[in-house]
């Protein structure tokens, strides 16, 4: 599946402030909300709709409404910063949680939590702001597939080419929506130029 990179002047603006090391957690959270809303709209452009007959104040018409509910699945902890725009914008959203944490030396993600709603029949949107090696994303996608998800999209704010390659190899049918595609990983598997540790900046840790 192709990688979809966000093209919107507001996205570029927000990303620049997210990257700025002087941006404090309160503003960082607001910016995360804003770019996640833009990404939520991109990741749902092709949602199925169905006919609905209604009456306007003037005449009956057949309109269209969303045909299926969404499930948004943040990868804890940083993914939590991307959930609220989905809840605020879409009429029928359930939330699942996959807890993964990268080891500081190996950068391999360890699973510590999982709680998912029924996923069959839903558009399942797995969200995590940083796609670095792709290890966390690939594991989370394995988990939602094993839980019955069939229509899955992965959404991140900053992607590294290495992470995109990992997800494309392990889950070739899953579309990836990214706010930006950065240059590379450094020797500690952080994204360059990136924005540092998203979870730490979101929560001030
Ligand atoms: C960060 C980030 C992703 C992961 C990406 O989380 O939020 O989940 O690293 O790296 P990867 O693509 O190499 O797997 P981290 O493990 O630091 O946990 P946190 O969200 O609790 O800060
Ligand atoms: N996780 C982050 O929060 N930032 C990176 O650059 C890589 C992984």
Automatic annotation (TrEMBL):
Its pathway is: Pyrimidine metabolism; UMP biosynthesis via salvage pathway; UMP from uracil: step 1/1
| Source organism superkingdom | Bacteria
> Is this entry keyworded Glycosyltransferase?
yes
Catalytic reaction list: UMP + diphosphate = 5-phospho-alpha-D-ribose 1-diphosphate + uracil
User: What GO biological process terms are annotated to this protein in UniProt?
Assistant: UMP salvage; uracil salvage
InterPro entries cross-referenced by the UniProt entry: PRTase-like, PRTase_dom, UPRT, UPRTase/APRTase
Which GO molecular function annotations are given, in alphabetical order? GTP binding; uracil phosphoribosyltransferase activity
* Gene3D superfamilies found in the cross-reference section: 3.40.50.2020
**Record's keyword terms, sorted:** Allosteric enzyme, Glycosyltransferase, GTP-binding, Nucleotide-binding, Transferase
A GO CC term assigned to this protein in UniProt: cytoplasm
What residues does the Phosphoribosyltransferase domain cover? 5-205
Cofactor(s) the protein needs: Mg(2+)
Enzyme Commission number(s): 2.4.2.9
> Cross-referenced NCBIfam families, in alphabetical order?
PRK00129.1, upp
- Functional description taken from the UniProt entry: Catalyzes the conversion of uracil and 5-phospho-alpha-D-ribose 1-diphosphate (PRPP) to UMP and diphosphate.
Give the UniProt family note: Belongs to the UPRTase family.
Could you tell me which PANTHER family the record lists for this protein?
ADENINE PHOSPHORIBOSYLTRANSFERASE, URACIL PHOSPHORIBOSYLTRANSFERASE, CHLOROPLASTIC
Tell me the protein's name: Uracil phosphoribosyltransferase
Organism for this UniProt entry: Oleiharenicola lentus
Q: Taxonomic lineage of this organism?
A: Bacteria, Pseudomonadati, Verrucomicrobiota, Opitutia, Opitutales
């Amino acid at each position: 599946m192709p990688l979809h990179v966000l093209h919107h002047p507001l996205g570029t603006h927000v990303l620049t402030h997210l990257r700025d090391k002087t941006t404090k957690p309160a503003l960082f959270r607001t910016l995360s909300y804003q770019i996640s809303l833009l990404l939520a709209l991109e990741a749902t452009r092709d949602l199925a709709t169905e006919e609905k007959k209604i009456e306007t104040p003037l005449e009956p018409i057949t309109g269209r409404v969303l045909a299926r509910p969404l499930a948004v699945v943040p990868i804890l902890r940083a993914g939590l910063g991307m959930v609220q725009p989905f809840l605020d914008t879409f009429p029928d959203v359930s939330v699942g949680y996959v807890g993964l944490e990268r080891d500081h030396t190996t950068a391999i993600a360890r699973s510590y939590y999982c709680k998912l709603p029924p996923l069959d029949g839903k558009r399942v949107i797995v969200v995590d702001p940083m796609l670095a090696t792709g290890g966390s994303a690939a594991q989370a996608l394995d988990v939602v597939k094993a839980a019955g998800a069939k229509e899955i999209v992965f959404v991140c704010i900053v992607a590294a080419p290495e992470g995109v390659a990992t997800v494309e190899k392990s889950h070739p049918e899953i579309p990836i929506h990214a706010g930006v595609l950065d240059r590379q990983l450094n020797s500690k598997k952080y994204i360059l130029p990136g924005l540092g540790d998203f979870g730490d900046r979101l929560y001030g840790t």
